[in-house]
TrEMBL record:
<dbReference type="InterPro" id="IPR004881">
    <property type="entry name" value="Ribosome_biogen_GTPase_RsgA"/>
</dbReference>
<feature type="binding site">
    <location>
        <position position="295"/>
    </location>
    <ligand>
        <name>Zn(2+)</name>
    </ligand>
</feature>
<keyword id="KW-0963">Cytoplasm</keyword>
<comment type="subunit">
    <text>Monomer. Associates with 30S ribosomal subunit, binds 16S rRNA.</text>
</comment>
<keyword id="KW-0342">GTP-binding</keyword>
<comment type="similarity">
    <text>Belongs to the TRAFAC class YlqF/YawG GTPase family. RsgA subfamily.</text>
</comment>
<keyword id="KW-0690">Ribosome biogenesis</keyword>
<keyword id="KW-0547">Nucleotide-binding</keyword>
<dbReference type="InterPro" id="IPR010914">
    <property type="entry name" value="RsgA_GTPase_dom"/>
</dbReference>
<feature type="binding site">
    <location>
        <begin position="156"/>
        <end position="159"/>
    </location>
    <ligand>
        <name>GTP</name>
    </ligand>
</feature>
<comment type="function">
    <text>One of several proteins that assist in the late maturation steps of the functional core of the 30S ribosomal subunit. Helps release RbfA from mature subunits. May play a role in the assembly of ribosomal proteins into the subunit. Circularly permuted GTPase that catalyzes slow GTP hydrolysis, GTPase activity is stimulated by the 30S ribosomal subunit.</text>
</comment>
<dbReference type="InterPro" id="IPR027417">
    <property type="entry name" value="P-loop_NTPase"/>
</dbReference>
<dbReference type="InterPro" id="IPR030378">
    <property type="entry name" value="G_CP_dom"/>
</dbReference>
<feature type="domain" description="EngC GTPase">
    <location>
        <begin position="117"/>
        <end position="263"/>
    </location>
</feature>
<feature type="binding site">
    <location>
        <position position="293"/>
    </location>
    <ligand>
        <name>Zn(2+)</name>
    </ligand>
</feature>
<feature type="binding site">
    <location>
        <position position="301"/>
    </location>
    <ligand>
        <name>Zn(2+)</name>
    </ligand>
</feature>
<keyword id="KW-0694">RNA-binding</keyword>
Amino acid sequence: MSLEDLGWSDFFQDQLVQSDLTSSDGRAQILPVPMRISRVQRVRFRAISGVGNSGGEQVLYPPKEQNTGDFAVGDWVLADADTGQVVRLLKRKSVLQRLMAGPNRSEGERSCQLIAANVDTLFIVTSCNADFKLSWLDLFLALAFEAGVHPVIVITKADTVESTRKWEEQARSLSPDLTVVVLDARNGDDLRQLDQWCGPGQSVALVGSSGVGKSTLLNGLAGLDQATGSIREKDDRGRHTTTARSLHRVRAGGWVIDTPGIQRLRLQDVMTGIGRLFGDITEASKHCHFRDCKHEKEPGCALLEGVSKGAISASRLERWHNLRLTDDTQSEADRDTAVGWREQLKAEEKTKRKNKFRKR
Ligand SMILES: Nc1nc2c(ncn2[C@@H]2O[C@H](COP(=O)(O)OP(=O)(O)OP(=O)(O)O)[C@@H](O)[C@H]2O)c(=O)[nH]1
Ligand SMILES: [Zn+2]
């Protein structure tokens, strides 16, 4: 396996300084050794080195002033291969992270939880059943937008419904040009649709709530043991081993990072991404007459005006309000507003339907 197979590119090579490069036997070498983090634990982590092995992991320790919380699966580090000491963390191409700003934390206490680093694509996994929720998808789309990572909505369990159209259309309506893939995660041929994001050097992170089929997808993509459901990979002697790592090599040549601890996000975790995902609404809301406008029925509300003029889609505005409604970190007052707004929208739609009926 080469460094490039592991995801190394000019972006990382350009961060090396002269003293990182040595030559032995006339061959250029990078010392300390570039390695990619495959698992983060409490006091140490594990990493895969691209040179001279076939994917075996090595235990590493963070530099003195840092702890493992400063590192994410997918990170590139330079490390001393003999002692396992990390010398330096390389700048990230992308990082999926959530802002931990819970209701009991003050503004100054904001901190980030790292989810995955140096990822090209985020597979947002949901299925054709009750766990398909637009507000859940919106939050993960916001996460991808915030990180500058390409989102792909993967809808599993296509085989359990007569038609997948309803799910597909709802997902597509979330954002223009959004990529949506519908499949049976247990079917190898269906999974080939995902290969285009999983080629050599490419990295994908996988998120989804419990039971949607993440392990099934991962096992299928990696060509692993479906029967036992365990993640089995070849160690450096070619033997099969069950691993608990989070960075998995897949059949198409790339890497998939699973994120078992991240099944749910709160609005506050991804505020910047929400701002981008709903850019038109965020921008228009700056022109509301009242600074603290709740966009419910206030005079001079630029959002309601936008809807009535057709400049803002009513369903997008409803989604935006719904996000606040489903968020348990929102204040009581904000949630009431969101409820009020939803009811108003419903009433308006009812009137519209009635009028239409009368015209006939
Ligand atoms: N019919 C059908 N079943 C599926 C599909 N994908 C997953 N399943 C089944 O759904 C169940 C849950 O799948 P998992 O892959 O374990 O789901 P998960 O998201 O990893 O769940 P957690 O480990 O709880 O996070 C298993 O019994 C799978 O066989 C699919 O596309 N079609
Ligand atoms: Zn307003």
